[in-house]
């Protein structure tokens, strides 16, 4: 295998992503998560929901720890109905994004 470490790829199902591509996505998610205290939760969950429609973003969101955040938002008693609904849909999208691998199937079973 002649790939250098900078060209290392991560295989997620039928797609492969370079570490650079994933790094950029992870940075984007981290910057979004850093805004948690300054932006309203409704806007944040709508943004996370929009991001969860892209398989590449789903990978970055999972890697940066969005799953526990979304679970918290879904089950948070103080959250509005719209926040819980957007968070639940984003969580569904993340979990069902890569059900072709073992971890994805396990996550999908937990979500049921």
TrEMBL record:
This is Armadillo repeat-containing domain-containing protein. Residues 1-20 are annotated as: Disordered. Keywords: Wnt signaling pathway. The keyword Iron-sulfur does not apply. One of its GO terms (cellular component) is catenin complex. It comes from the Eukaryota. InterPro entries: Apc_fam, ARM-like, ARM-type_fold, Armadillo. Belongs to the adenomatous polyposis coli (APC) family. One of its GO terms (biological process) is Wnt signaling pathway. ARM repeats lie at residues 65-94. One of its GO terms (molecular function) is beta-catenin binding.
């Amino acid at each position: 295998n002649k790939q250098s470490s900078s060209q290392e790829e991560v295989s997620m199902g039928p797609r492969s992503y370079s570490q650079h591509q994933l790094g950029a996505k992870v940075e984007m998610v981290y910057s979004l998560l850093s805004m948690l205290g300054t932006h309203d939760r409704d806007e944040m969950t709508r943004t996370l929901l929009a991001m969860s429609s892209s398989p590449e973003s789903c990978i970055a969101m999972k890697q940066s720890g969005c799953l526990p955040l979304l679970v918290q938002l879904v089950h948070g008693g103080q959250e509005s109905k719209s926040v819980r609904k957007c968070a639940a849909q984003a969580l569904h999208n993340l979990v069902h994004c890569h059900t072709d691998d073992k971890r994805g199937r396990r996550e999908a079973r937990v979500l049921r």
